[in-house]
Amino acid sequence: MRRILIVGCCGAGKTTLANELSKRLNLPVVHLDRLWWNPGWIESTPEKFDARLAAELLRECWIIDGNYKRTLAERLRYADTVLLLAYSRTRCLWQIFRRLREFHGRTRPDLADGCPERIDGEFLRFVWNFNRRVLPEVRQILAQRPAGCTLREFHTPAETERFLSSLPPAR
């Protein structure tokens, strides 16, 4: 595993998993949210985002966490491993509210500076409907991955933890 994609619903723990894998495998982490968001929650343009992403994809090794379904097929061309966190929506929502409590009014490390933690109704609806609306499309894209790209799908944090325990300990 040298080029790992981590995808799944918001709140599933993609960033947490990416950071833990980074410690264990000594690979750099690329947070797609940092490539997309500018300070003050200003969105990047698709062209700027794509250029930033293209530069990251050319690196020798990485862990990329984030969804951004529009670019998933392109990222798959470079990945050797995909980790799909297909957790329940209630688990993801619980994690989002826990994260809000932890980072309220502050910017998380996986976001651009000047983007304090926030949630709104649109975001909560996206999470609530992710497994029904977005996940099937993600699975269709993942089904088209290159032959050498391994897919691991986890349905619970315990499954993910078992996977992590099979890897070398954090350095």
Structure, explained:
- It contains seven helices and seven strands, in the order E-H-E-H-E-E-H-E-H-E-H-H-E-H.
- The chain is α/β, with parallel strands linked by helices.
- Strands 2-5-1-6-7 form a five-stranded parallel sheet.
- A hairpin with a 3-residue loop joins strand 3 and strand 4.
- Helix 5 crosses helix 6 (121-143).
- The longest helix is centred in the last third of the chain and has 23 residues, at 121-143.
- It is globular, with a radius of gyration of 15 Å.
User: How would you sum up the major sheet?
Assistant: 5 strands, parallel
| Helix and strand run | EHEHEEHEHEHHEH
How confident overall, as mean pLDDT?
Answer: 97
In quaternary terms, these chains amount to single chain
- Uncertain runs are none
Number of distinct beta strands: 7
Count, helices: 7
Tell me, briefly, the overall form.
globular
Sheet with the most strands: spatial strand order: 2-5-1-6-7
The share of residues in helices is 40-55%
In short:
The protein is of the alpha/beta class and 171 residues long. It has helices at residues 14-25, 32-36, 46-57, 72-76, 89-103, 121-143, 157-165; strands spanning 3-8, 29-31, 37-38, 42-43, 62-65, 81-85, 150-154.
Mind sketching the topology for me?
Blueprint: E1 3-8, H1 14-25, E2 29-31, H2 32-36, E3 37-38, E4 42-43, H3 46-57, E5 62-65, H4 72-76, E6 81-85, H5 89-103, H6 121-143, E7 150-154, H7 157-165
Parallel strand pairs: 1-5, 1-6, 2-5, 6-7
Antiparallel strand pairs: 3-4
Keywords:
171 residues; 7 helices; alpha/beta; single chain
